[in-house]
Amino acid sequence: MVEKIDNSKYKILVTEDEESVREIISWCLKENGYSVVTAENGKVALEKFKKDTFHLILSDIKMPQMTGIELLKEIKRIDPDMPVIMVTAVSDVNIALDALKNGAYDYVTKPFNLEELIIAVKRALEKRELILKNKEYQQFLEQKVEEQTREIKTLYLNAIKSLVFALEAKDKYTEGHSKRVTFYACEIAKRMGLSNLMIHKIHLAGLLHDIGKIGVKESILNKPGKLTNDEYRHIYDHPVTGAKILTPVLKDKDILSFIRHHHERYDGTGRPDGLKGEEIPLGARILAVADTFDAITSDRPYRKALTVDFALREIKRCSGSQFDPIVVIHFMDFAEEKLKNVIYIKPVINDIFPEIEREEFLVENM
Ligand SMILES: [Fe+2]
Q1: For residues 27 and 242, what is the distance between their CA atoms, to the nearest angstrom?
Q2: What is the pLDDT along the chain (366 residues), one digit of tens a residue?
Q3: Ligand 1 is an ion; residues with CB less than 5 A from it
Q4: How much distance in Å is there from the Cα of 262 to the middle of ligand 1?
Q5: 8 Å CB contact between 198 and 283
Q6: How remote is the CA of residue 345 from the centroid of ligand 1, in Å?
Q7: Which end of the chain is less congested by CB atoms within 10 angstroms, N or C?
């Protein structure tokens, strides 16, 4: 006999129609410390299996009502990791092999050597424990990786938010500007039927499009009067400065290009590269409309906010020269739907931007 250890935690279901064989197997397993439940046929075994927790199934193959192979298939369907040892007459070896193909862990032949049976049982239980431990470890690792990925993404977004806060602390007129531009740009992108990934890129580019203004002198940024040519040129370095600041933290070339080109004009007279029409990245063409609409409808250092109606007329007027006409059409759709009867943006900001903080969306799509 195999050395006795505490096997009582293992519950084994013994399925055998011949009472004498059932009793011998049961006795032998109990002698070795295992907990045993018996069933006289496959149907009874299946009922017991569904109601209780077992660690191993021992099953005869030839039984009335439900064969051992049918029982095996049902058990494997319910719990693929449950080890099943088939008990079979020597003449049934081919059937036993068929059982192995159907997922049985092992088989013992009748009349069997009890020591052999116990060794097979022990081996099957050890293998099951190993499989379960591996599964548990795998799940633990997957969960850990998922948690860490989420944490990294959140930290990354927070780093981006810090950059936006840094800019807003310097230039009070950009406070909220980045978020509003992001909102308008995403609304356009959605109406254009762009993919979630593209909307996500436009979202990040929207938040960061003016980050290069960190490099613009405050006296110029907040100058109430007209800018000189040099000052104007200095301010309009910001798309290039922005892309430069972000290159070490943003690996996405699309987002960087949207930022670099958000002041290009559709007719090719914009900055910094004078790109024309579709040479300008789509995200940048979308940001250009969103940015201008927000600039017109917000207070600026040199004037108060203008009306929505004025801004819409201005954008329509510049469709095809400053702006991509297709982008303008989709922006007008948005305005028609969400800005009808709105005169000034500021008083209705909270109604228009209910979902402006869409960080969950951002993290999901990173
Ligand atoms: Fe800008």
Answers
A1: 79
A2: 545 568 888 999 999 999 999 999 999 999 999 999 999 999 999 999 999 999 999 999 888 888 899 999 999 999 998 999 998 876 777 888 888 898 899 888 877 788 989 999 999 999 999 999 999 999 999 999 999 988 888 888 888 888 888 888 888 777 688 889 999 999 999 999 999 999 989 999 998 999 999 988 888 888 888 889 999 889 899 999 999 999 988 888 999 999 999 999 999 999 999 999 999 999 999 999 999 999 999 988 778 999 999 999 999 999 999 999 999 999 999 999 989 889 998 888 777 765 555 555 554 555
A3: 210
A4: 7
A5: yes
A6: 19
A7: N
| Strand arrangement, sheet containing 56-60 | 35-39, 11-15, 56-60, 84-89, 106-110
186: left (phi over 0), alpha (psi -120 to 50) or beta: alpha
Q: Which residues pair with 112 in a beta bridge?
A: none
Question: pTM score > 0.90 for this model?
Answer: no
C-alpha 96 – ligand 1 centre gap (Å): 75
Kindly state the tokens that stand for 312: 């819409």
311 CA distance to ligand 1 centroid (A)? 17
CB 121 within 8 A of CB 58: yes
CA 261 / ligand 1 centre spacing (Å): 9
